[in-house]
Specification:
about 120 residues; mainly beta; 5-stranded antiparallel β-sheet; 5 strands
């Protein structure tokens, strides 16, 4: 049952998981790759203002793009003051969303907007 409270302060970081196409995406092995962000803020943040996080999240891969994929983005709270990038003991899942798409190789960017409100 999401979201989980991380009071008094949420130290928010994300995991991006790119995997083979699934009709109903569910967490598991990130067959095409995964990446964790650093902690991006305490309780709230504006991605444009996060110091040291000027690049978009990148998942390099060295295989022929299959054209279909599932993408899962999970938001976590780290209770540790000395956070090291990655999923660690005690991290709480506070939100997630998943999509599956067909996307051909192209010079054009594709945009998907997810809008969910939670506190």
């Amino acid at each position: 049952a999401l979201p989980i409270s991380c009071l008094p302060e949420c130290r928010t970081f994300f995991r991006v998981c790119l995997m083979h196409f699934q009709m109903v995406p569910s967490p598991g092995q990130c067959t095409f790759g995964s990446v964790f962000t650093p902690i991006l803020g305490i309780n709230s943040f504006d991605i444009d203002e996060v110091q040291g996080f000027s690049n978009p999240i990148r998942l390099p891969f060295n295989f022929t793009w299959p054209g279909t994929f599932s993408l899962i983005i999970e938001a976590f709270h780290s209770p540790a003051d000395n956070f090291i990038t990655g999923l660690q003991d005690g991290a709480l899942l506070i939100g997630q969303f998943a999509i599956q798409r067909q996307l051909n190789v192209s010079e054009e960017w594709s945009e998907d907007v997810q809008d969910r409100k939670s506190t």
